[in-house]
Amino acid sequence: MKSIKIAVIGLGYVGLPLARLFSTKYETIGYDMNQQRVDALMAGHDATLEVDDALLQEAIDKNGFRCTTKLDEIKDCNFYVVAVPTPVDENNRPDLKPLWGASQTVGQVIGKGDIVVYESTVYPGVTEEECLPVVEKVSGLVFNKDFFAGYSPERINPGDKLHTVEKIKKVTSGSTPEVADIVDDVYNSVLVNGTHKAPSIKVAEASKIIENSQRDVNIAFMNELAKIFNAMGIDTNDVIEAASSKWNFIKLKPGLVGGHCISVDPYYLIQKAEVYGVLPRVMFAARRLNDGMGAYVAEQTIKCMNKKGVLVKDSNILILGITFKENCPDVRNTKIVDIYHTLSDYTSNITIFDPWANAARVKAEYGISIVRNLPEGEVYDAVILGVAHKQFLDIDVKSLLKENGVIYDVKGILPRSIVDGRL
């Protein structure tokens, strides 16, 4: 293949870090339909905080990395990477519209001999059965004759500064053995820990979907244990610590499962399994259990309040954090909103404090107002620590309580002596 010139389509949590990394080795252009996003990136700031501003500016100044909303500027690329979201709809059915749209974009610019690699998490078969026919139709080119494809599932963990994109071992695949080698070589050239070349695109797709499904099932088991032990008056964390003294015990903790991966991806495999006549009972049960944990936390908080004689109706409640995980601005599919909505049946006096989240985005997505600074002098009937942001470790949570107030610690990071309940 001639000299590689890369276009990354979709500049979110996955696409931007990957594009920045590719720019260290290849001429790279980032493409996104959001002009505001492109303008901010070209000004040297990534609102997702996945790419440090200094690193982004270095990529622009030193590597010639640039972002655009103009299709003409990516037409002379020959290696296209699609990194768009794969959400579910209100019925938890896979929503492939972003992928279809990105495939139409690719179809408008791809040329003979070019390669398109998909990174979006999907069920096995989506790349070849859903995406590439769109590219063929729009481009007028024939798959595996005029253009070729690959799949390399994303493994970005938002907010994780240890497992950054260049350190992640990536799975790669290609539509022909020769293309698989090219795709593998391109990724291998920028990754510290190399790649694993899968034997087919479907295997690569399946590998990604089970990574997150496995974690979903494991966390669901811990959440079920937490419910059992809470009912028995046993501290779940003490049980986990004791059990983890055995060499082959897998140490996990209960918690809220949100975000764009673990809380979404299993539905893609569940849906595809049903098409083949297989009912994935374990995965489906795990999803139902994990989706109900926000309401469970709210109910347990109310139970703690009742035990201490705190009137729940019209009570003043503070929730610390709304992002789906700590030290990260990502609010997609956050289960904190389930806590909020359950409590709002009893009181409208609920304050959500999160120094990481974008208040405008939270309002637009969930219709909930949040504050980015802790209200001075305010005291509460209950405080729920929902997210383990580093800033919350410096707060004297007990000083925020009224007399007999309740502290519920979802993340298990507060001193046990001051909490009334935790998962």
Provide the fold topology:
Blueprint: E1 5-9, H1 15-22, E2 27-31, H2 35-42, H3 53-63, E3 66-68, E4 79-82, H4 97-109, E5 115-118, H5 126-139, E6 148-151, E7 170-172, H6 177-188, E8 195-197, H7 201-232, H8 236-243, H9 265-275, H10 281-291, H11 293-307, E9 317-320, H12 336-343, E10 350-353, H13 359-366, E11 380-385, E12 401-409, E13 421-422
Parallel strand pairs: 1-2, 1-4, 2-3, 4-5, 5-6, 7-8, 9-10, 9-11, 11-12, 12-13
Describe the model.
- This protein has 423 residues and is of the alpha/beta class.
- The mean pLDDT is 95.
- Helices cover 38% and strands 13% of the residues.
- The N and C termini lie far apart (54 Å).
- A six-stranded parallel beta sheet has the order 3-2-1-4-5-6, with helices on both faces. Strands 10-9-11-12-13 form a five-stranded parallel beta sheet, covered by helices on one side.
- α7 packs across α10 (281-291).
- The longest helix is centred in the middle third of the chain and has 32 residues, at 201-232.
- It is globular.
- It contains 13 helices and 13 strands.
